[in-house]
Amino acid sequence: MEGATKPLCQSPGCSIQVSRIMRPDDANIAGNVHGGTILKMIEEAGVIISTRHCNRQNEERCVAVLARVERTDFLSPMSIGDVAHVSAEITYTSKHSVEVQVNVMAENILKGAKRLTNRATLWYVALSLENVDKVVEVPSIQYTSPEQQEEGKKRYEAQKLDRLETKQRSEDIILPVISVDRQSKEPYTVGYSQSSLIHLVGPSDCALHKFVQGGVTMKLMDEVAGIVAARHCKTNIVTASVDAINFHQKIQKGSVITVSGRMTFTSNKSMEIEVFVDIDHVMESPKGKTPAATAFFTYVSLDKEGKALPIPMLKTETEDEKRRFEEGRNRYLHTKAKRMAQVQKGHCLPIHE
Amino acid sequence: MEGATKPLCQSPGCSIQVSRIMRPDDANIAGNVHGGTILKMIEEAGVIISTRHCNRQNEERCVAVLARVERTDFLSPMSIGDVAHVSAEITYTSKHSVEVQVNVMAENILKGAKRLTNRATLWYVALSLENVDKVVEVPSIQYTSPEQQEEGKKRYEAQKLDRLETKQRSEDIILPVISVDRQSKEPYTVGYSQSSLIHLVGPSDCALHKFVQGGVTMKLMDEVAGIVAARHCKTNIVTASVDAINFHQKIQKGSVITVSGRMTFTSNKSMEIEVFVDIDHVMESPKGKTPAATAFFTYVSLDKEGKALPIPMLKTETEDEKRRFEEGRNRYLHTKAKRMAQVQKGHCLPIHE
Amino acid sequence: MEGATKPLCQSPGCSIQVSRIMRPDDANIAGNVHGGTILKMIEEAGVIISTRHCNRQNEERCVAVLARVERTDFLSPMSIGDVAHVSAEITYTSKHSVEVQVNVMAENILKGAKRLTNRATLWYVALSLENVDKVVEVPSIQYTSPEQQEEGKKRYEAQKLDRLETKQRSEDIILPVISVDRQSKEPYTVGYSQSSLIHLVGPSDCALHKFVQGGVTMKLMDEVAGIVAARHCKTNIVTASVDAINFHQKIQKGSVITVSGRMTFTSNKSMEIEVFVDIDHVMESPKGKTPAATAFFTYVSLDKEGKALPIPMLKTETEDEKRRFEEGRNRYLHTKAKRMAQVQKGHCLPIHE
Q1: Are B204 and C25 within 8 A, CB to CB?
Q2: Among A269, C76, C197, C344, fewest CB within 10 Å belongs to which?
Q3: How far is A145 from chain B (nearest CA, A)?
Q4: Does this complex have an ipTM over 0.90?
Q5: What is the C-alpha to C-alpha distance for residues C330 and C324, in angstroms, rounded to an integer?
Q6: What radius of gyration do chain C's Cα atoms show?
Q7: How far apart are CA A105 and CA A86, in angstroms?
C-alpha cells in the first residue's frame, strides 16, 4: 500500500492531502458513501494542486479546469464515520495539460484499519483568468527519472487519442429523448418551459423524524417553478406568492421524489406555475407514483431597479392548456379583487404591484 | 408591524424566533433570496414549535408533520447579507391539528432597516413516534380571549373544507406527462428506469472561478446513475466503476444543467448506465442544449453482508437499445480481460468481483 | 513558519492535515471567511486525530468529545478561493484527556503565497461508544523529550483549574432576554445589538456519534457573535479572537439549541461579545434549558483596505451591563499586556493591531 504513495514529482508543492469525516448526507440509506461524494473530493484535490502548479512560474494568473478523468474503479465501499484521505500528486505535464494521480484511503478511526478505495487519474488544462477562452502554457514538473517522463508521455498520447474519438462520437450523438425535447418546442408554449427534477431524499431532509420536512419539499417546488419562469421569460425572476399547499402523503427517507412544473397562466406582469410532487418508491415493487403535493406559484420578473417587467404571453396549444389558462385567470382575478379590498383596509402590498 | 407580533398564545413556549444570515447559495445570481429558502425557514420554525407543543402534556412522544400551508405573499425581496428573522407562534389548536402563524422580517444589519417580507399560516398534525400512522391528540393552548378561539375555529373549518375539496380534485387529476410516464413502461426496460435531474448552478459549485468545478458535475452524474440503478433492481446499489469522462464544455455559474441517465447493459452482477450532461442557457436566446460531458457508470447491487447480488437482465426493445447493449457487452468483456491481466500482476480487485 | 510544524509526537498516526477550498458560503459579503468556518475545520481535524488515538490501544471502542478550546487569535483574514490547510497533532495526553495543537495556513493558489492564520489548542475526552456517560482511559503518546511532557502537564493543570472556575460561573448565569423588541432600543446599547438564533440539530451535525461535533457549535456561536457585531457598528466585521470555550454538556441529535449573543465591552478598535449556548429538549418533558457552552468573541471592523476602523462605544444602562463592561475591559487589558510580552519575543500579531 505505502509503495503507492512514494513521490513521483520532485517539484515543491506538487502533492496534497485532503481528509474529511464521511457524514450521513454523503451516503445512501444502507450507509454506503456515494461514489459521487468520492469523485467530488478527488476533483477538489486535483483542482487545488494543478491550479497551484500552473501559477508557479507563470506571469499570467490562471485556473485549472478539468478536461478528463480516466476510468476509475471503486475497490471497497466506504461508510459513514470513516475518514476519507485523498492524496493527489502531479505525475506528468505536457505543454498545455497536467496529469494528476489520486489515491483514496478509507480509515476506520475506531478500529484503526485503513484500506485503498480508489485510484484516479485526472487531466487538467490551464485557462487564463482574464480571458477564459485562452489556454495557458503549463510549467514542466521535475521528473525523478527519464523513464517516468517517458511513461507519462505515453499516457498523454493515449488519452489525447481517446478524447479526439469521443469528441467525434459526441457530435454524432443523437440526444436521448429522456427529458423533454425542448428544441422542437416553440418559445412561450407550455411545453417549452415545462421542467422537472428528481431529488433523492437524504438524512438532512429529515432532521426530526424519518420523513421529509415540509419545508424541504416547498424549497424544491419553488426551485422548479423558478426554472420554468426563467425559461419562459429569460430574465431575473422572483417568487411573488404561493397558493395554499396541501400535503397528501408523508415522504420517507430514501425515496426519490419528482417535482414537475408547467406554466398555466400569464398576466401582464405575472406568471402562474403549477407544481406537482410525486413519490417514486424506488425500492418497492412497481406501484408507480403517489402524488404528495401540488401548488400554484406566482412569479414576477424584475429589472435592475426592482421594477416589474412585462411578461411574454403564454401560448396555449391544447384544449387542456386553454382550460388551465382560464382557471388561472380566474384565480388571478379573484386574488386581485381580494387584495384590493385589503389595500382599502391599509394592509401591505406584495412584490408585484 | 409591531402590532402583528403581540402574543396571541398565553401558553409558555408557544412562540419561537429563528434568525439566519442569507448566504450566496440562498439566492439567485441577481442576489435575490429564493422564495424556497424563505419557505424552508418558515417551516423549520413551524415544525419546532408545534413538535415542542405536542410533547408538552402528552405521555406519548410525537412529531408534528406539515399538513397544509395557506396562501403566502412575498411582500419585498430579500438579499444576500440580510438577516432573516422568522417568528412563529401557535394561534389555534383543534383536537388533532395545530395552527402556526409566522412573520418573516428582513433586516439589513448594516443600515438597521427592517421590513416585513412574509406572513404565513401552517397547519400541522401530530403523529406518534412509535407508530407514525397514528394521529395523536394535541393539547389545547390558552387563548387570550374567547374571540380569539372563535376566529381560530373559523379558520380551521375553512381550511378543512378546502383540503377536502383539493383531495377530491387531486384524485381526479390526470398526472402531467412532464416526466416520463413510468407507469406505462414494463419493468426492466430501458424506459422504465431512465431518469434525469436539473440542477441550477449556484455560487458554491464554482469556488475557484466562474465555472462549475468538475467534481460537482461528476457528483450529479453519479446521483442520476444511482437512481437509474436503484429503479432497475430495487436493492442497495453502489458505484463499482466509472469509465473515462471527457468534459467538452465549461459550465457557467447561473446555468441550468440537465443530467440524464439510461441503462445500456447488464451482466450477471453489474449494470452499465450511460449519463449525459447538457447545458441549458436559460437566460440566453433559445439555442437549445449544449452537451457538456458523457460517461458510463457501472453499478453493482450488494446484500447486507456486502456480497454482490444477481442483476435482473435489461429488456431491450428498440434497435438502438439492442445496439447499445452489444456495445456495453464489448466494454464489459474488454475491461474484464484487462483486469484479469492485472490480477496476474498482483493488483487489487474492484468491488464487484 | 515551517519551524512551527516540526513533529512533537513520535507515536505513529498522531498528526493529520485537512485541506479545502473556501467557498462563497464560507464567507461574508465582503469575501472574508467567517471565523466559525475555520473553527469548524480545526475541530474536525482534532476529533479525527484524537478519536483515532484513543482507539489505538483500547479494547473498548470510544469517541473523542471536545471539552475545551484555548484562546485563539485570528492572525490574518482568509478569502473565497483560498485553500485552508489545517494541520493537527497530539501534543499531550493525561489519564483522561488529549491535547491537540492545530495550525491553519491560508494559501492563495493563484499567487503562491501562504500565511499562518490561526493556532489553536483543543482538549478532548474519550467516551465509551457503548455507554456515552463513561469516560475511557487514554493511551499515552511517546514524547520527544521529558521537557515536552513536563510542559504539557503544566498546560493540563492550568486548563483544569480554569474549567472548574468557569463551571461555577456558568451556574450563576442569568440567561439573556432573547428576541428583544429592537426598534424600541437606542443604538449602541446592549439591547440594541443582542441577537439569538435557533438551530435544530440534524444528522450531518453528528457524523461520528449521536452528539453534535464541537466544531458545529463553535460555528453557530461565531455566527451569532458576527450578527451582534454587525448590528452594533454596521460595517464589515471579522473575528479577531475567541477566548477559551468550555463545553459543559453533550448536545444530542434532534435537540434544538439556542445560541444568544450580547455585547459586553468595546475598546477603540475592538468589540467583545459574550455568547451562550443552551439546549432545549423539544421531545422531552418541560425541563427548561440546559446551558451547554459560553465564550467571549472579539471582533474588529475593517475598511476596504483591511485596516481596522474605530468602534462606536457601547452604551451600558443597567448595573449588570456596567459590571460586565468593566470585566471585559480587564480581559482586554490582560490580553494586551500578554501580547506585548509575546511581541517582544518576536511572535505574530493578531488581525486587529
Answers
A1: yes
A2: C344
A3: 23
A4: no
A5: 10
A6: 20
A7: 7
